[in-house]
Amino acid sequence: MSGVPAFGQSAKAGSSTLYSDVTLIDGSGKPGLPHRDILVRGERIVAIAPHGAIAEADRGDAARVDLAGRFVMPGLIDSHVHLATPPDAPKAQATLRRDLYGGVTAVRDMADDLRSVAELARASRTAEIPAPDIYFAAVMAGRPFFVDKRVAAVSQGYVPGTAPWAQAIDETTDLREAVALARGTGATAIKIYADLPPTLVKAITAEAHRQHVMVWAHSAIFPTRPADVIAAGPDVVSHICYLAYQLEPVMLASYEDHTPVHAALLKSGDDPVIAGLYREMLTRGTIIDATGNLFVRSDAERKAHPERRPLRCDGPETIRLTRQAWRAGVPISTGTDHGAGVSDPWPEVHDELVYLARDVGMPPLQVIRSATLVGAQAAGQAEDMGTVEAGKLANFVVLTRDPSADIANIRSIEMTVKRGRAYRRADYRPVTKAEMGDGDDD
Question: For residues 438 and 150, what is the distance between their CA atoms, to the nearest angstrom?
Answer without folding.
Answer: 18
